[in-house]
Amino acid sequence: MAGPWEVLVIEDDVLDRGLVAELLAVRGRGGVRITEAGDLQSGLAALDQRRFHLVMLDTKLPEATALHALRAVGEKAPLTPILPHPAYISVQSRQIARQRGAFDVVVRGDLNPMWAAVNKLLTLSAFASDIRPAAPAVEQ
Fold first, then answer.
1. Distance between CA atoms of residues 132 and 40, nearest Å
2. Does this model's pTM top 0.90?
């Protein structure tokens, strides 16, 4: 896995946010830089500041429904993959999240599948950035 990867973790619960951040740091072996946001507004503000390779999104934020949060992040960073990470999820909710733009949905405590999805998304993100057209040159 190349890097460094910029990952934004939007999660209101301090312990859960720490769990996700620790997973990324340990499994990423120093190749993942994590920015933590404790609410949706802070996450959106972070997306205004810089580009991320991945957004890990809690689906139970107090100020937004899962679909509202998914839409808001997707509108703010349309080329950034979003990986929702609920504490639990139904098959129907997983399908709806995918229809609304989520790459996949992983259950927060299921660490191996979570890391597998993160690793796949970061690899795809690297490939996508290699094929995106370069920004036009600025005339001086």
1. 28
2. no
